[in-house]
Amino acid sequence: MTDESRVPVSLSLDAWLDRLSQRGGEPGGGAASGVMMAIGAALLHMVAAYTPDDERAQQSGQRSIELRIEALQAAEDDGVRSAALGAALAAESSPERDERIVATGTAGAESSATLVGIGAALAAGLRVLADRGNPHLIADVAVAAEAIGAGLGGALTNLRACLALARKHLPAGAGLSGDFDRPLAEGSAARADVALLAQAVEER
């Protein structure tokens, strides 16, 4: 893929969503997961901005800015990898096609694992601001939790799907390179934690 083929998240929201709705996979579900995480990160920063006297809340807010940037970059990168995987799947059946699917599927899994890591980091910040953030913004904390949880769920779904697809096209007896057990476990734990936090916040 060339740089010109990228669909930057710096597009207007309406233009980005229009591209998301089209065929091509760039952006796709993984990129959408990253954008949802970025929305959650932005909300966390807003809550921290309304909690100026709490040092931990301020630190969490600063970290949320970094994670928002990382989420948007990961979303853009995931779109490129998604398009490459789609192109591999569209090719005519051959041993080379299988190799391309394994390579692009593994790359897609790596991209999803990156998103999972960002979501897990956001989950940690969410807990801080749920406990220490300005109580008048507790509804915004709940919305952030829902956005981060949705992003994590999407990234985990894509991670599992990419792994399954790549393994399906491996030669008999071969295995995938890379360790994906850790992001799967950490992401699942973080998603469960976010769901519990969201429920607790909404019940206050």
Model regions low in confidence, pLDDT < 50 over at least 5 residues: 1-5
List the total number of helices: 6
Number of individual domains = 1
Strand content: under 5%
Mean pLDDT: 90
CATH architecture: Up-down Bundle
End-to-end separation in angstroms reads 49 Å
Using only C-alpha atoms, the radius of gyration works out to 18 Å
Question: What fraction, in percent, of the residue positions are helical?
Answer: over 70%
CATH class categorisation: Mainly Alpha
Number of strands: 0
**SSE series:** HHHHHH
Structural class: mainly alpha
Annotated CATH topology: Four Helix Bundle (Hemerythrin (Met), subunit A)
Query: Biggest sheet, in brief?
Result: none
The coarse overall form would be elongated
Looking at this structure, what is the CATH superfamily?
A: Formiminotetrahydrofolate cyclodeaminase monomer, up-and-down helical bundle
Description of the structure:
- The chain is an all-alpha fold.
- The chain has a single domain, classed as Four Helix Bundle (Hemerythrin (Met), subunit A).
- The chain contains 6 helices and no strands.
- It has helices at 13-20, 29-49, 55-90, 95-132, 138-168, 181-202.
- It is elongated and about 60 Å long.
- The termini are far apart.
- The model is unreliable at 1-5 (pLDDT under 50).
Short account of what is shown:
Helix content is 76%, strand content 0%.
